């Protein structure tokens, strides 16, 4: 109770550093942002410029003051891979030329205070556990897959982000789902989930199946599939199958109560989910043993395995960054 | 310190319930068994018979008394899948006709006291963390794969067994490693690690490659491979590749500092490990980023990912059962 009161008397500042946009918000308890700032991520002007833009926005928000509330801390979300506890980026695909950049030190030395830092996919998972599906399904442990340009993922065990030994825990986008595939992944491997379930993968698979007449965006492929185009439907069936294979590994290995799927591709849930559930039922005996009677039960059943569409939308990463300073560890 | 003294003044009793043998031991701190009892698992005489044999041996040991030591508790290891916290078996392949059996209640009502219960693969992992590779490599988190008749596995996170929501965490033997494989697995799926890295898999793959002249045991296949037989060598190369694909998923997802491989097939380490490491280096970018400079360094390097042969041999499961009553949760 005292914790709740203290949390209510504090606010935090969160940053979502993306390859295109930089979003900064102040946040108080609950799911309420107080103020948000959106600026372009000026990558072409160098990383020092981006850090300066970020820190100026943080300072602007912290100078506002929020009545009796004091600043609990500052949380930064960044595309990974991120080496922790140091806070050093390791060849992040969405931030070209940032390999080896000590993001924590750059921000802390500019601000003159310590920050919390985390990969954006882990923060989306944290937000979903604290304020989304984790709350409606009453669980403190979940795995989240974010199907965007790439496939990010995060693991929350007993309310805390699972970092692994060096901060790289939760890279389920690089589970091998097609072991004999020649399709190279940005990670250097082959046949990773990211090559079969991301927006880029949807476009590539459409091109493979439909040839030069294939649409140039995953939304277009989804529209065609919704209209009944059989080739576009095959693309999403492959998305569903691949997520099913990856989830089979995750469910058999981790036996978590909840798996949440978010990101833009998730708008096509109705197109890929049937094949995903079919694959899961065939492949994962742990899923079969723990499958809920109905996918959308009126009440949550304990000891069942749920696979759901994310409840929070594009704000999940920013919200997670704001929640980070309120975490115990 | 007080905990250490209290642990020294106590003993435990552990049971390793196998499909062939039933092993019961008393144990005091360190890795020392005080007494061990080995009896056949009389499955053909019904599960009540097996439970009676088990409980008689436990009573015999507890009646011995061990000087000033008092009984800390009784730990039972059983083939899985095991539903926890209840302690109910779910169609265990190595205990035919035990599906739905409430093992915990059967033992507790016979003994008239409470017990701790756990799947045998999880206990082997616990023993390896507390008394094996986890100690020499100074880590409280690891994943263990046990390559026996099947492939078992266990996860230890921060010194505790990871059960998952219903006790079925750690079934990495059923990660899909050959997504288009027609090879059916005992779990109901296809292309699981168990079908490419267990002793039975070695025999099946040898038959596929060598035809009717193939040896009937995995040890024989290993002997041929050691002598240079090219077909037998291919079998172990496939074992190594499959473990590499499974470890890629585990390492990218969990980023643990240590992965331990045990079980009988591990005697053929030199035959499968080269291809396993080759696959890992190609497929797992988290492994590449965290790979130790030498596989067997003189000193353990923090922040590196080690994949090692288990240090404890066939006693690991029994030792884990004895350690269970000393666990905090």
Verbal overview:
The structure is a homodimer of 329-residue chains. Chain A is an alpha/beta fold. Chain A folds into 2 domains: 2-124 and 317-326, Nucleotidyltransferase, domain 5, CATH 3.30.420.40; 138-311, Nucleotidyltransferase, domain 5 (2-Layer Sandwich). Chain A contains 12 helices and 12 strands. Chain A has helices spanning 2-8, 47-64, 103-111, 120-131, 133-136, 194-197, 199-210, 218-226, 230-254, 269-283, 285-290, 316-323; strands spanning 10-17, 21-28, 32-40, 70-78, 82-83, 88-89, 116-119, 142-147, 151-157, 160-161, 258-262, 306-309. In chain A, the strands form 3 sheets. Chain A has a 5-stranded mixed beta sheet with strand order 3-2-1-4-7, sandwiched between helices. In chain A, strands 10-9-8-11-12 form a 5-stranded mixed beta sheet, with helices on one face. In chain A, a hairpin with a 3-residue loop joins strand 2 (21-28) and strand 3. In chain A, helix 8 packs across helix 9 and helix 9 (230-254) crosses helix 10 (269-283). Chain A is globular. The mean pLDDT of chain A is 92.
């Amino acid at each position: 109770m005292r914790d709740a009161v203290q949390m209510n008397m504090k606010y935090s500042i969160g940053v979502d550093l993306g390859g295109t946009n930089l979003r900064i918000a102040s946040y108080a308890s609950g799911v309420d942002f107080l103020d948000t700032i959106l600026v372009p991520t000026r990558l072409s002007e160098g990383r020092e410029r981006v850090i300066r833009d970020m820190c100026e926005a943080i300072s602007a928000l912290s100078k506002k003051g929020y009545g009796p509330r004091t600043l609990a801390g500052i949380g930064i979300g960044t595309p990974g891979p991120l080496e922790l506890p140091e806070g050093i980026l390791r060849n992040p695909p969405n931030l070209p030329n940032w390999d080896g950049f000590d993001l924590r030190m750059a921000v802390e030395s500019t601000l003159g205070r310590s920050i919390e830092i985390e990969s954006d996919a882990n923060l989306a998972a944290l937000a979903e556990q604290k304020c989304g599906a984790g709350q409606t399904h009453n669980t403190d442990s979940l795995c989240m897959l974010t199907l965007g340009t790439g496939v990010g993922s995060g693991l929350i065990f007993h309310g805390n982000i699972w970092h692994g030994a060096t901060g790289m825990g939760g890279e389920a986008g690089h589970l091998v789902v097609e072991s004999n595939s020649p399709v190279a992944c940005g990670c250097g491997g082959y046949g990773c989930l990211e090559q079969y379930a991301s927006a880029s993968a949807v476009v590539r698979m459409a091109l493979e199946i439909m040839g030069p007449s294939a649409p140039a965006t995953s939304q277009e492929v989804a529209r065609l599939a919704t209209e009944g185009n059989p080739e576009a439907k095959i693309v999403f069936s492959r998305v569903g199958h691949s997520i099913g294979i990856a989830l089979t590994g995750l469910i058999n290995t981790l036996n978590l109560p909840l798996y949440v799927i978010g990101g833009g591709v998730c708008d096509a849930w109705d197109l890929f989910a049937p094949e995903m559930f079919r694959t899961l039922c065939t492949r994962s005996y742990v899923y079969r043993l723990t499958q809920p009677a109905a996918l959308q039960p009126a009440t949550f059943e304990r000891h069942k395995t749920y696979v759901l569409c994310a409840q929070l939308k594009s704000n999940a990463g920013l919200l997670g960054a704001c929640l980070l300073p309120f975490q115990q560890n």
